[in-house]
C-alpha cells in the first residue's frame, strides 16, 4: 500500500461518503494518469473502423495520444502517437489508410508495425551510426479484442482483458452480441469538450438511474407518446411500452463490481427507449427471437439501461451510444461517442439508428444536453474551498446489496441505488493506493465479500 | 449480409461563378434571413418555426481531419449527424425549451446570430438557393461564452403571406473538429 495522497481518507464506500477534492486536485489527477489510466484496460477502437491493412484510427489512452493500426497480417497494434526523435505528434488525421507514418518535424518515418524505417540524412548526419531497430514507436504492450471492441493496457502485470472485465462482460454481451455477425460503428465519432472531472461522467453511467426522471424531465415530456407528439402520425419509438418503466411493478437491477457498473429495468417486451425512431424499435422487436436464443430472456429484453466499464468506457443499450470520457486535466473531459449497430441490420435501420443516436445522445441530443450541464455546474461549484471540503452523499441503498439466484451475476441492488457508485469509488481508491495488481485484486475481493456478507 | 449505411458527405462546394441576382431579390432574401435570426435571438421560437416549411430538412454534420494522401483520393474519416431535423423534430426542440425544465437553457441563454457573405447561388420565380457564413455568440449561466462559426446553404421557397418565404433546406457546416461547447442546446 502506498496511499501517498491519502485518497483512502477521501472515499468511504462503507459509509457512502466522498470528499469532492478527488474531482479537483491536480496532484490526484497526475496520480490517476499513472495508477488508473496506465494500469487499466482502455477502449481504443472498434475493429470495424479499421478493416483493411494500413487502416488507422487516432485516439487517446488517458492524455497519451495513440494510433491504432491494422497490420498486414490482419492483427491490430497500437502505438504512442509520438515521434521518438523529439516527441512530435506523428499522425494528425482522425483516421485513414497509409503505408507509413512520417513525422512532420524532421521526417523520421515508421512502418505500420511501428518500426523506424527511414531517417533523413542517415548517412551524412548520423554517419550510419543510428541503430534504427532501437528507435521504433513506443508500442502498447497489450492489445486485446472483446467482441469487436479493441482495448489497450500499458501494464504487463494487469489481469487479461476478460478477467479484468469480470461480470461486466455479461452485461456488455447484451449490447454487442444480440445477433450473429456482431456489431459495427455507424458513421463518425462525436467529439466534444465538457468542463468537468472524468469521474462525474463515468460514475453517472456506472450507477445513476436516479438522475433520469429529473435531469431529463424535458426530454421525457416532449418525446413520450402524447397527442402533441405525433409527428408524421406516429410518435417516436412507435409501438413501445409507455414510459416510465419504473412506474410498473417489474422492478430492476443495478450491478456493481471491480469498479464497473450497470443498471436496467425489467420489461415484458423488447423495448428500446422511446427516443429511438420507430424503424429502430421495430427492428429490435423483429430480431428478438434471435437475441433471446443467444442471450436468454433477461438480456434480450434489456434494451435500455446504462453501463460503465471502469474507468472511462460507457454505453447505453437501445440508443446504442458507446463513449469514452478522455480526461483532460482534473477539470475537463473530451467525450468521444460512437454509434454501435448490429452488422447485419438492414440499411434502413442503420440510417434510422444513426439519426436516433444523434438526436438522443449526440452533442445536440435531447437528453445529452442536460447531463453535461449538471457536471459543468458541479465542477464550477467545486472551485470553492468549503465546497471541496463538503462531503457528497453516496448512501442510496446502502446495506441492501445481494447476490441474485436468477443468473444475473455480481453484487446487485435495486435499479435506483448507489451500489455501483460506491464500488466505482472504492475501486478507484484501491487503484490509487495499491502498488500491484495483486493488491488491487485482494482489496476488491475483500470489499465485495463484505458487501454481501459472504 | 451486412449492408453499409448511407455514407454522409460534407457540404458541397458552392457553384462558380456566383449568380448575380437582382438587387431587390438579394435584399429581400437578406432581410428574411435577418428576421429569422432575430426571432431566434428574441426567443420567439414558435414564430421562427413558421419560417420553416413543413418539409424542411435541417442538417449539421461533424467535421474530421484527413491526411493529404486520403484527401487527394477524396477519402476522409466517416462523418455523423449533429442535427438531422424534420419540422416535427424542430417543433419538439422548441417544445422542450418551453417546458422550463430544459436545464441547459434554464435560465435561457442569450444568443446573437450573425449572417454574412450572403450569395445567391440559384434562383427562379419561386425558389432561391443561398450560401452564407454564420457566427453565433451564446452567453449562458453566469459567465459561459461560446461561439459557433461556420457556413451554410439555405434553400428558400416563396409562400403566400407571413414573411413571404420559408426555408425548406438548411445544410450547415461547423468549423470545429472537437466541439468546444458542452452541448448544442440552441438552434442554428
Automatic annotation (TrEMBL), chain A:
The keyword Transcription does not apply. Keywords: 2Fe-2S, Aromatic hydrocarbons catabolism, Dioxygenase, Iron, Iron-sulfur, Metal-binding, NAD, Oxidoreductase. Residues 41-152 form the Rieske domain. Its cofactor is [2Fe-2S] cluster. SUPFAM superfamilies: Bet v1-like, ISP domain. Signal peptide: none annotated. Gene3D superfamilies: Naphthalene 1,2-dioxygenase Alpha Subunit, Chain A, domain 1 (3.90.380.10), Rieske [2Fe-2S] iron-sulphur domain (2.102.10.10). Pathway: Aromatic compound metabolism. GO terms for molecular function: 2 iron, 2 sulfur cluster binding; dioxygenase activity; iron ion binding. Belongs to the bacterial ring-hydroxylating dioxygenase alpha subunit family. This is Phenylpropionate dioxygenase alpha subunit. It comes from Plasticicumulans acidivorans.
UniProtKB/TrEMBL annotation, chain B:
Pathway: Aromatic compound metabolism. It comes from Plasticicumulans acidivorans. CDD domains: ring_hydroxylating_dioxygenases_beta (cd00667). SUPFAM superfamilies: NTF2-like (SSF54427). Belongs to the bacterial ring-hydroxylating dioxygenase beta subunit family. GO terms for biological process: 3-phenylpropionate catabolic process. It holds the Pfam family Ring_hydroxyl_B. InterPro entries: 3PPDioc_HcaF, NTF2-like_dom_sf, Rng_hydr_dOase-bsu. This is Phenylpropionate dioxygenase beta subunit. GO terms for molecular function: dioxygenase activity. The keyword DNA repair does not apply. The keyword Iron-sulfur does not apply. Keywords: Aromatic hydrocarbons catabolism, Dioxygenase, Oxidoreductase.
